[in-house]
């Protein structure tokens, strides 16, 4: 936890943005893997962590505006718990750690909410993503399961997004720690990428480093010789000389702040000429987009500019052709980059995505695109000082997508399908850094940038 005053200050700031009613925070419960006593690694709800800091299962809290109350609801441990877990602080002691001085057993939450409903008071809640919390809200508030997300409080969501989007200095320090762990993970992998290695041997070491220095990875590690599959979590392939291995992985600190980086490596330590040519385009795209990232610019505009850099590089290789600005406007480039340039990052690797991406990544002036590729951009809104985002361009040759578009003669004015066929089994290359928006510009997070140029990677691997 941070100092207790941090959580009180955050709640006080939140209350200034809230209207009337009761605002409900549901923490997470333990999640069984295959039977009740064998659980996944516990992860507290990020909003609960942000405003209360208590990394304990089975907790809830309310902020009651009219009655000016903040209450924690949870159960004290009994002797059976102590036998298996050892002595634990009381709920009263835990609540005081975040400067809340009223607490009750969890069952009292039901009474509190039912009493408020009888009085016609509004209960605000956030979109639930855990099934046990969905069931709880259904039983207490009577909201149908199918309407749970649409009944969530937009006012509550927007108030939290506004506060959590701008990272405090202490949060930036935690993210820097996560980036350092990520550096260790990625460079350890670079030492291991040799012919004959199985992907899981490398991903296992990376995961172990994250656990050693902080917590579990910030998301399931993507490590694959089939980089054309964007989120490939299968780790059973044997690496062969000449393969490209894409590794997209991030760490979490013990306080759950995330990093998220991607590098693409040549198995055997040397890129082929063909691999170098595509790699350099992705490198030019990530490096060329960084100077564009600053306050007052929308990330939608940065994304489109990055796509133009990428498409121009492909045009120079004869893979694309024609008017590149028009090609990007229509989405022809998405044959090769069918995703957005990045997303918010913080306590969640896709920060606050549980609250609804439309509220996190967009605003009243910038709305999502319906163009293939750009429609997958999670973060499009105007950038502000204190935002932390990812910058992750890539080029992929997806045989199934090539076949469909070629058969449909889609974007023949912009795509040289004959040339594309030369790259059918190339795979994919993605590069990714974490970026902090500063007062007038931006900077890459992490004390040392993970090796990224062809020369840096080949030198490091060899």
Helix-strand makeup class: alpha+beta
Radius of gyration computed on alpha carbons: 24 Å
Largest sheet: 5 strands, mixed
Arithmetic mean of pLDDT = 96
Shape: globular
Strand share of the residues? 5-15%
Topology diagram in text:
Blueprint: H1 4-15, E1 22-26, E2 32-35, E3 38-39, H2 46-52, E4 60-64, E5 69-73, H3 79-85, H4 91-96, E6 103-104, H5 107-118, E7 123-125, H6 131-141, H7 148-151, H8 154-165, H9 169-190, H10 199-213, E8 222-224, E9 244-249, E10 261-266, H11 273-289, H12 299-316, H13 324-330, H14 357-360, E11 388-391, E12 394-396, H15 399-408, H16 417-420, E13 428-430, E14 433-437, E15 442-444, H17 454-461
Q: Would you mind describing this structure in some detail?
A:
With 462 residues, the chain is of the alpha+beta class. It has 17 helices and 15 strands. The strands form 5 sheets. It has a 5-stranded mixed beta sheet, with helices on both faces. A 3-stranded antiparallel beta sheet has the order 8-9-10, covered by helices on one side. A hairpin with a 2-residue loop joins strand 2 and strand 3. It is globular, with a radius of gyration of 24 Å.
Quick overview:
By secondary structure, this protein is α+β, with helices and mostly antiparallel strands. Helices cover 38% and strands 13% of the residues.
């Amino acid at each position: 936890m941070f100092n207790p005053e941090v959580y009180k200050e955050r709640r006080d700031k939140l209350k200034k943005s809230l209207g009337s009613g009761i605002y409900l925070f549901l923490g997470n419960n333990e999640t069984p893997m295959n039977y009740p006593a064998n659980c996944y690694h516990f992860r507290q709800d990020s909003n609960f962590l942000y405003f209360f800091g208590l990394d304990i299962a089975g907790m809830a809290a309310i902020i009651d505006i009219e009655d000016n109350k903040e209450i924690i609801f949870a159960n004290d441990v009994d002797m059976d718990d102590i036998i298996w877990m050892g002595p634990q602080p009381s709920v009263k002691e835990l609540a005081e750690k975040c400067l809340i001085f009223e607490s009750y057993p969890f069952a009292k939450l039901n009474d509190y909410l039912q009493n408020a409903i009888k009085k016609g008071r509004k209960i605000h809640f956030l979109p639930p993503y855990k099934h046990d919390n969905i069931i709880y809200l259904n039983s207490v508030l009577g909201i149908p399961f199918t309407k749970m997300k649409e009944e969530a409080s937009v006012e509550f969501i927007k108030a939290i997004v506004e506060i959590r989007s701008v990272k405090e200095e202490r949060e930036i320090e935690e993210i820097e720690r996560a980036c350092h762990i990520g550096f260790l993970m990625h460079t350890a992998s670079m030492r291991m990428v040799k012919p004959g290695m199985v992907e899981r041997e490398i991903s296992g070491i990376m995961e172990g480093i994250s656990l050693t220095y902080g917590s579990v990875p910030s998301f399931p590690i993507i490590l694959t010789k089939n980089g054309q599959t964007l989120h490939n979590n299968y780790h059973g392939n044997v690496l062969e000389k000449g393969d490209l291995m894409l590794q997209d992985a991030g760490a979490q600190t013990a306080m759950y702040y995330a990093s998220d980086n991607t590098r693409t490596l040549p198995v055997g330590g040397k890129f082929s000429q063909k691999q170098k040519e595509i790699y350099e385009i992705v490198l030019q795209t990530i490096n060329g987009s960084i100077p564009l990232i600053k306050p007052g610019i929308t990330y939608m505009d940065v994304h489109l500019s990055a796509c133009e850099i990428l498409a121009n590089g492909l045009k120079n290789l004869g893979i694309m052709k024609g008017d590149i600005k028009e090609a990007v406007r229509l989405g022809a480039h998405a044959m090769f980059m069918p995703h957005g340039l990045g997303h918010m990052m913080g306590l969640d690797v896709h920060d606050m995505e549980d609250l609804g991406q439309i509220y996190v990544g967009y605003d009243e002036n910038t709305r999502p695109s319906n163009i293939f590729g750009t429609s997958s951009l999670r973060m499009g809104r105007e950038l502000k000082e204190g935002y932390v985002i990812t910058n992750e361009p890539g080029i992929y040759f997806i045989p199934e997508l090539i076949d469909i578009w070629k058969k449909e003669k889609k974007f023949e004015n912009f795509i040289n399908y004959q040339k594309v066929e030369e790259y059918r089994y190339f795979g994919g290359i993605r590069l990714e850094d974490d970026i902090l928006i500063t007062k007038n510009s931006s900077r890459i997070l992490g004390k040392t940038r993970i090796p990224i140029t062809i020369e840096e990677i080949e030198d490091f691997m060899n």
